[in-house]
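Changelog-linked ticket: nicotinamide-adenine-dinucleotide example.
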Amino acid sequence: MKILVTGGAGFIGSHLCERLIAEGHEVIALDDLSTGKKAFLAPLAEHPNFTFVHGSGLDRSLLNEVMEGCEAVFHLAAVLGVKNTVENPLKVIEGNIDVTRNVLELAFPRKIKVIFSSTSEVYGKNELLPFHENSSRVLGPTTKNRWCYATAKALDEHMCFAYADKGLPVTVLRYFNTYGPRATSTQYGGVVPKFIAAALKDKPITVYGDGSQTRCFTFVDDNVTGTMLSLDRKVDHHVLNIGNDHSISINQLAVKIKEMTGSQSTIIHVPYEKAYGIGYEDTPNRMPDLTKTKKLLNYVPTIGIDEGLKRTIEWYRAGITWPREE
Ligand SMILES: NC(=O)c1ccc[n+]([C@@H]2O[C@H](COP(=O)([O-])OP(=O)(O)OC[C@H]3O[C@@H](n4cnc5c(N)ncnc54)[C@H](O)[C@@H]3O)[C@@H](O)[C@H]2O)c1
């Protein structure tokens, strides 16, 4: 199958491209390299079924061109990260809503299947765990930039379903915190890469808040498995949680990474306000209900946090040479 991956040079996108190629698909990766890195696609560079196109999903004519002949689009290109969300809401809104609208509008006349990468952030600060796909969204006020990413992704989901109602095959995936090799961006919020980078340098591991907040971390291979499975047409018009349902507190994560790296780092706690400004709200706990994804796609995450962290730390230790953000 000929497939377009937007955001294909990103952390998850580059792993997805590799898996698609390994399974015999023809793949075009479109990426503006704003956070993605061409080096992530180096293993595929010479493959006859792989093409990299440097450009933006905001460029409609380019997007139209790269979609030609495709049977599916995995739409991962997005502007994300807490730092962007708090400091650059316009970039987040444009980078999510405008690009998704372009993808859907151009896919529609050709009936190209769209698999949209949404986020567990859309559940916001809902306190009823686990999050089922039909759980309510509980978001803070629009005066807090912090909620613009969740809102933009939720609006993207609405657009997906509006097109699905008109007959476009669309599946919406809500990813829960994903980590693994190539999750390099310590700048835009990934807690696992931040902690590993600090631990390997024996620098303080900084926990925001009191660290009792919990997350369910998903190793990237499990994310890619769920994403690939959603090519199945029986999940057209569905929203599905993609994640791992084992939870860990951020304090426990910090201790685990310190121990696994044999680091001399101290673990320090910093109030959210100091990091992201007064009034910043975090979501206290997040856990996916995977019942629907298991039932429809037979999706079961297989890589636990210890094995996933081991592989991620190994990748960091291998001293990969492309520039890392500090
Ligand atoms: N990593 C996670 O934990 C997580 C959790 C929930 C949802 N997601 C979603 O998964 C997707 C992939 O995230 P990721 O973690 O790999 O982040 P990433 O930043 O590594 O990937 C996004 C990619 O999109 C590219 N991009 C951004 N704007 C673009 C544009 N206008 N045109 C073309 N390319 C553009 C970036 O250069 C980057 O390569 C995103 O849609 C994100 O919202 C990720």
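Closing comment: Example verified and attached. The longest helix spans residues 89-107. Residues 6-7, 9-13, 30-36, 56-58, 76-80, 95, 99, 117, 119, 175, 177-178 surround nicotinamide-adenine-dinucleotide (CB under 6 Å).
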